[in-house]
Amino acid sequence: MKAAYYERQGEARDVLKVGVLPEPHPGPGEVRVRVYMSGINPTDIKARTGFSAAMDHALVIPHQDGAGIIDAVGVGVSDTRIGERVWIFEARSARASGTAAEYVIVPAFNAVHLPDNVSFETGASLGIPALTAHRCLFADGPLFGRRVLIHGGAGVVGNAAILLAKQAGAWVATTVLSESHLEQARAAGADLAINLKKENVAAVVKAHTDEMGVDRIVDVNLKANLEIDLACLAQGGVISSYATGQAKDEISLPLLKAMMGGCVFRFVYIYNVPQDAKRIAIKAISDCLLSGSYSPKIALQLPLDEIVTAHEALESGTTVGKVLLRIE
To answer: Which CATH number is 2-126+296-326 given?
Structure first.
């Protein structure tokens, strides 16, 4: 099969290769998916660069997310799944091979039914961003009638969080880093979009919530936004953080202020979230897909041969939306 891979960690253009590797075959409880779209996430970049951990296999096919069609199943999996369109998540978790290849093997649970009217592009944009967004939003209860602040509404997790929160009946405010991203956040369904660089976020949020603040905050950069978050949070509210810029990042908490506000901090690393919670998230994501309201922003779509360009585009921070590879 055609696949992209690396045998050592480093810069994309130094380590990523495209070549021919042996076709994989499913074991017990597994399915094989013919991949048509592979989604790239920041965690894929971090794995390739060694940000989060050393190489765990001698040869790695990258990427956790993707979409395609099941073409073979292992023992214990019904053969009625053959021919099923699916979206894939955590393909590379504890495995050497991800979705940057014509075929990928995953546990049957990690290949989720993709409705016929949903494109492979959308399917490959779900996975880690949608599951992360759901955990940040719903780990502390339903959202109907609640107020939510989502930082980074133009990013892939932020975009997913807006879509899922609105589907659940929440009022949603979001921050973005430039004027050009405001309309994108509104198009995703945000009730209020705020330019983090130009506006007093806390003042704007309080003005739109009768000074009550928000019940949940989804934060992509807690270290930078902590003061804003505490000023925006309603009594007993929850701040969920899912990203860090440095492996050894640390923050200092104003304990008295957090205590007086009854503040709850939640830290989300989706790979360690219990399977039962992922099952609930998958149901919510599927409902959103079926309603037709899940429409992620696609920033860039390239063929597998251009994986280096795709990785560098995501790593540069200049792309707004999901970066995908076509597996042809």
So the answer is: 3.90.180.10
